[in-house]
Amino acid sequence: MKIHDFLPQPMNLAAKKAREFEALGYDCAAGGETRHDVFLGMAAAAQTTSRVELMTSIAVAFARNPMTLAQIGSDLNAATQGRFIMGLGTQVAAHVTRRFSMPWHRPAAQMREMIRAMHAIWDCWFEGKPLRFEGEFYTHTLMTPYFMPEILEFGRPKVALAAVGPGMTRVAAEVADGMLCHSFTTPRYLTEVTVPTIETALAEAGRDRSAFEITAQLFTVVADTDEGIAKGTEQLRRDLAFYGSTPAYRPVLECHGWGDLQGDLHRLSREGRWEDMAQLITDDMVQTFAFIGTPEKVADSMIETLGAKVDRLQFPSQGIEPDRLGAILARLRGAGKGG
Length: 339
Hints:
Distance between the termini: 12 Å
Radius of gyration: 20 Å
């Protein structure tokens, strides 16, 4: 099992922290995209590392197009000498249309086509095939030598797709190299919904499970003191309320019989009542969604709950001494995927 942690977003901080992650023994450093362009952080981190993988988790796919993503992916994979993983996500309709001013179609169908278009572009660059991709949402039929990348030896990057619902999960299994489980996922939902959906879709597509990587990035509250646990839990309530208000994430709540909560949270979010939202998150919900405790306890819980299901795992480094963290990472890495 490979272990990663998340980078801060500004370029200079991402570069520094990625170097630290590499020294600590992490397999991968992941960057998210909220206030900053995630690819700039990846480019900076590429200059300060030599071993650790670099992954976007996630880059907002629909804010871009297949050609720009294919170019960025090719460049970063060359810059890292084959260590880059392009993790993509859709974001939600309001952000795509109102924040990025980009069109919103049928997200699963559009994402499937976007990844296939990227691969058609990479087939042109790395295998010399003619570029003739014509789809419902994207068309790419022009590529001249002047616009071909010069460095080809490291090939195309892996593509991982973030998903929650069964529809996007199936797309990941059909066309991507792996799936990123959203933080708003519970071990039960992963076991009963996500993994069976992936396995079925892989089988239908004639793809081998051993070549597909499932990444778990579930919520954690890691601390050695009751005070630290309490502080982390309060922030977790806010995070759960925020994500739980999103209609696309309702299936996770429904898995536990909490489907009606999503409507209540969504209504309060539209009214701007953020603190009221957090009050709706019960202790049972907190315990269901998150791994909570000392670093060793959280690691043991992850191994027991996720070790046989996932190939990659996020584990937080903050506040843990290097020697102690190294021992924990070794235990997690050795757990592996048993089935």
